[in-house]
Write a structure and sequence with these properties.
Blueprint: E1 11-14, H1 22-28, E2 34-38, H2 41-45, H3 48-58, E3 63-66, H4 75-88, E4 92-97, H5 99-113, E5 134-138, E6 150-155, E7 160-165, E8 173-176, H6 186-204, H7 212-234, H8 239-252, H9 267-279, H10 283-298, H11 303-313, H12 322-339, H13 346-349, H14 355-369, H15 381-390
Parallel strand pairs: 1-8, 2-3, 2-4, 4-5, 5-8
Antiparallel strand pairs: 6-7
Helix pairs in contact: 4-5, 6-7, 6-8, 6-10, 7-8, 9-10, 9-14, 10-12, 10-15, 11-12, 14-15
C-alpha cells in the first residue's frame, strides 16, 4: 500500500429537484456576479437554463452568460470567457452541463485568477494556483469533473488536447439530479457509462502495491456501472439506474478508487486525447475504441490484475490459468461495450487514420505524456503507433 492524501472539498446536493437549491448555494458562496456557462442543447431545450435564470433573478444575483461549449471544449471559447469575466467583474462561475462545460469553466476560472496565458497550464509550463470559485448543475453523468481536480481543453489552433490538474479548480458545490440526465440520447448515456468505467479502470490497472479496500470499492463501482448501463439500454427513464450511474461518475474520478495505489496507468486516456483532438470524437467512445488493443499489448505485464478484473468485475469463470482468464476478461469487456452501443475499434468509431496520421497521433501522444505513457507498461512511440494500428 502506498501513502496517499485524499482531498474532496466539493459539497454534493443529490436528488430529485435538487437544482432548485442552486441560487441558495451561490449565495452561501458569497458570489457578487456570476458567469452562467453552458453548452446549450438539452439544457436549453429542457427548460433547465430558464429555470436557473429565474432562480438567479429571483435571488437578485447578477449574472452574465456564455454558452456554446462543445464536446472536447475549445481554448478559443475559454479565452472569450476569460475576457468576459474580466470585463463584467465576474467572481463566480456556474457550470450547467457535463464534463465539457465544467472543464471549460475551470479553464476560464484559472485564466481569470492567474495572470499570463491560460494555455501555459495545459502546455506543461506552470500549474494553476488559483481559480474563480465554481458551482455545477450536472446534466451528464460521465467525466466526474464535478468532483475532480482535472480539466481537459482542446487548442483549436494546434488541435492538441491537453489536461491539467489543480486542487484550486475543484468545484465548491455540485447539484446532481439524476432526472436531468433522462433527456440524453442513448449514445451519449452509453459514452458517459464508458467514461466512468475507464476512470476507474485506469486506476485499477496499475503496477504497484494495492490496497484491498480500494480494490473492493473499485470493483464494486465497475460492477454497478455495468449492471445499470445494461438496465438503461432497456429502461432509459429508470431513475434508480440513473442515480447509481450519476453517483458512480463522481466517485470514479475524485481520487477514491486510486487511494493507496500508484495512481494508475492513464495511457488509454492519452491515446484517446489525440483521437479526440484529430477527429473530435466522443470521449467515452474513443476510449473504448482503443482499450482492447492497449489491453492485449500490456496484459502480460500484470496478468494477475487482468485475471482479477475478469473474475471480480466481468464475472468470467476461471479459465484454468491467469493468461486465458485475463484474455477472456478483455473479450468480455469488449462484448459489454458493444452491448451498450460503444465501439471497440476505430472502424466502429467511424474514423480511418492513414499511416501518416497514425505516426502523428503517436508523436502527439508522446508529447502529451512528456515521455513514455503508462504504468502497467511504459509505451514507446512504436508501441503507441502499434496500438493505433491494431485498433483500426
Amino acid at each position: 500500500m502506498h501513502d496517499f492524501s485524499y482531498y474532496t472539498p466539493t459539497k454534493i446536493v443529490f436528488g430529485r429537484d435538487s437544482e432548485k437549491q442552486t441560487a441558495g448555494l451561490i449565495k452561501e458562496a458569497g458570489a457578487a456576479k456570476v458567469l452562467l456557462h453552458y453548452g446549450g442543447g438539452s439544457a436549453e431545450r429542457s427548460g433547465l437554463l430558464d429555470r436557473i435564470r429565474e432562480q438567479l433573478a429571483a435571488g437578485r444575483i447578477p449574472f452574465t452568460e456564455l454558452g456554446g461549449v462543445q464536446p472536447n471544449p475549445r481554448l478559443s471559447l475559454v479565452r472569450e470567457g476569460i475576457a468576459l469575466c474580466e470585463r463584467e467583474g465576474v467572481d463566480f462561475i456556474l457550470a450547467v452541463g457535463g464534463g465539457s462545460v465544467i472543464d471549460s469553466a475551470k479553464a476560464i476560472g484559472y485564466g481569470v485568477a492567474c495572470s499570463g496565458d491560460v494555455w501555459d497550464f495545459y502546455n506543461f509550463k506552470r500549474t494553476a494556483t488559483a481559480c474563480l470559485p465554481i458551482g455545477v448543475v450536472l446534466t451528464i453523468a460521465a467525466a466526474g469533473s464535478e468532483m475532480s481536480n482535472s480539466c481537459v481543453i482542446t487548442n483549436d489552433d494546434t488541435w492538441e488536447k491537453r489536461g491539467t490538474k489543480s486542487d484550486a479548480g475543484r468545484p465548491r458545490f455540485a447539484v446532481m439530479n439524476p432526472e436531468l440526465t433522462m433527456t440524453l440520447p442513448p449514445y451519449q448515456t452509453a459514452c458517459g457509462c464508458a467514461d466512468i468505467l475507464m476512470h476507474t479502470m485506469e486506476r485499477y490497472f496499475n503496477h504497484g502495491e494495492n490496497m484491498e479496500l480500494t480494490d473492493g470499492i473499485a470493483e464494486a463501482l465497475m460492477r454497478t456501472v455495468i449492471r445499470n448501463a445494461r438496465l438503461l439500454v432497456k429502461e432509459p427513464e429508470n431513475y434508480e439506474a440513473r442515480a447509481e450511474i450519476m453517483w458512480a461518475g463522481s466517485l470514479s474520478h475524485n481520487g477514491l478508487t486510486g487511494c493507496g495505489t500508484d495512481g494508475g496507468d492513464w495511457a488509454v486516456h492519452k491515446l484517446e486525447h489525440e483521437l479526440g483532438a484529430m477527429y473530435d470524437v466522443a470521449h467515452g467512445a474513443g476510449l473504448t475504441a482503443v482499450w482492447g488493443s492497449w489491453a492485449r499489448l500490456v496484459y502480460g505485464e500484470r496478468m494477475e490484475r487482468f485475471a482479477s478484473f475478469a473474475t471480480n468485475v466481468m464475472n468470467v469463470p476461471w479459465q484454468g490459468n491467469e493468461r486465458e482468464t485475463a484474455l477472456a476478461g478483455i473479450r468480455a469487456a469488449e462484448a459489454f461495450f458493444r452491448e451498450i452501443g460503444m465501439p471497440v475499434n476505430m472502424t466502429e468509431l467511424g474514423v480511418a487514420p492513414t499511416e501518416e496520421q497514425i505516426e502523428e497521433l503517436a508523436e502527439k501522444c508522446m508529447k502529451s505524456a512528456q515521455g513514455m505513457p503508462g504504468i502497467v507498461k511504459k509505451l514507446s512511440r512504436e508501441e503507441i503507433a502499434g496500438i493505433y494500428r491494431a485498433a483500426r
